[in-house]
Amino acid sequence: MDVVSKPITPFDGQKPGTSGLRKKTRVFMEPGYLEAFVQSTFDAIGGCAGKTFVVGGDGRYFNAEAIQTILRMAAANGAARCIVGQNGLLSTPAASNLIRKREANGGLILSASHNPGGIDEDFGIKYNIANGGPAPESVTAKIFENTKGISGYKTLGTPDIDLSAIGETEVGTMTVEVVDPVTEYAALMEELFDFDAIRALLAGGFSVKFDAMHAVTGPYATAILEGTLGAPAGTVLNGIPLVDFGKGHPDPNPIWAKPLVDLVMSEDGPDFAAASDGDGDRNMILGKGIYVTPSDSLAVLAANAHLAPGYARGLAGVARSMPTSRAADRVAEKAGINAFETPTGWKFFGNLLDAGKATLCGEESAGTGSDHVREKDGLWAVLLWLNVLASRKMSVQDVLMDHWRTYGRDYYSRHDYEAVDTAVAEAIMADLQSLSTGTMPEGIEKIDSFSYTDPVDGSVSENQGMRVFFEGGARAVMRLSGTGTEGATIRLYLEQYTPPDGDLTIDTQEALAPLVAAIDKLTDLKTRTGRDAPDVMT
Ligand code: G16
């Protein structure tokens, strides 16, 4: 085996964000760019000698080429085995599951999640550790340090490996094992959920549509929903993964999955509909005539998870990211279980799940998951909802109303201002920070910057977003996205609680309008960004 050492000079800005390194595809295609990051990762984890990795991605443009580069580099760095999804495909939760099931040392996942794919769109890579979850900040910080001083990388001069056939191939001294991307994941879902009950629900005429958005969940949803559970053919929409996701944004929210939302809002729409994103870790849940916000979805699932066999023994606790609404906390309080508030980023849930402190986790950004893997999981959320509906024999709308009548309703929305000039965005945040000290403006109880101390390892993460607490209990949060690839994205998260005996059916944006006005007065957001309205409202 001829290991080749190639010299390179460091690239600026290879700092992993909320979820790995995300950049424009053309940036990743610059000679040596991907290699510099991958070698820095291998060096940060103490080398590859004798190790096993899982490698796969969401199938977007450059996925296939990047995997070949990674396999050659892993072999040259001494790895023993790489387990790769057939044709390079693995959803993020399926990759997490494979890392755990096969006791791999880690995994490299190629995705820019819900961002569009294509040569002029986005690409990304992240490293997951042996528990199947995203590398914690201690590891990503080391990777970034290494990128700054890197001088070369190791590779092999071998030809591309055929990833279309299941089986094993040798690359130098490393074995490449190509596996079916769906099999292990589907088996896990069958362990967790009452498939007989879901099958009976579907057989009884309960109609479902699942929009895979031309992304990676297509094969998973087709095999499980239409195959094992017997939903009619055509239940899965846009089920073939495409390198450019059909030129869409594979982002399951009411803007980018509008056709699906229109469908459930129509007279003859399905009883239940859902969508997942580029790499299969996000979800959107809809019922006939209703959109379930991710924060409510987490709370409803927390209150009902015991109806699924995998969670029948109850939950140890529920964790949510700080900007997620406090609906889940109300469920935890009533049930007498732990409630945790973490910074944005699934990596912060890893320790809580490993330590058995939390069982369910969720984020406002359409992510829900549990201790079955160490990533959020789109299709898992869909199956848990179906299990709950099969067991309670109620519509989505009735389940939600019943929930609000029990716990009250947290009216909630996120407003995004995208591609804002970075200096302007940073100045808005800095000014808000400076308002946190001194006399509070009228109507505001407290402004603070969220910082988190991990209850398991004691690590501290500071500056995780500005929180504004209003008199009367409303809350607004402002932070800059860590996943964008162009300028800055300002995220404004708005939340207003109404008790069970209050008005539970106000239009969300109407309910939150006074809060939007108060924040605009406080920050001058619209004038400073030059926008009349947000680009996205979830
Ligand atoms: C990633 C992270 C999530 C986070 C989301 C948005 O999701 O895994 O934890 O909530 O980004 O982050 P930000 O607000 O910083 O843009 P995904 O689905 O993009 O991998």
Automatic annotation (TrEMBL):
Its cofactor is Mg(2+). PROSITE patterns: PGM_PMM (PS00710). It is an enzyme of class 5 (isomerase). Keywords: Isomerase, Magnesium, Metal-binding, Phosphoprotein. Residues 14-150, 184-286, 295-407 form the Alpha-D-phosphohexomutase alpha/beta/alpha domain. One of its GO terms (biological process) is carbohydrate metabolic process. It catalyses: alpha-D-glucose 1-phosphate = alpha-D-glucose 6-phosphate. One of its GO terms (cellular component) is cytosol. Its EC number is 5.4.2.2. Residues 1-22 are annotated as: Disordered. One of its GO terms (molecular function) is phosphoglucomutase activity. Pfam families: PGM1_C_vert_fung, PGM_PMM_I, PGM_PMM_II, PGM_PMM_III. SUPFAM superfamilies: Phosphoglucomutase, C-terminal domain, Phosphoglucomutase, first 3 domains. The keyword Phosphoprotein applies. Belongs to the phosphohexose mutase family. This is phosphoglucomutase (alpha-D-glucose-1,6-bisphosphate-dependent). It comes from Sagittula marina. The lineage of its organism: Bacteria, Pseudomonadati, Pseudomonadota, Alphaproteobacteria, Rhodobacterales.
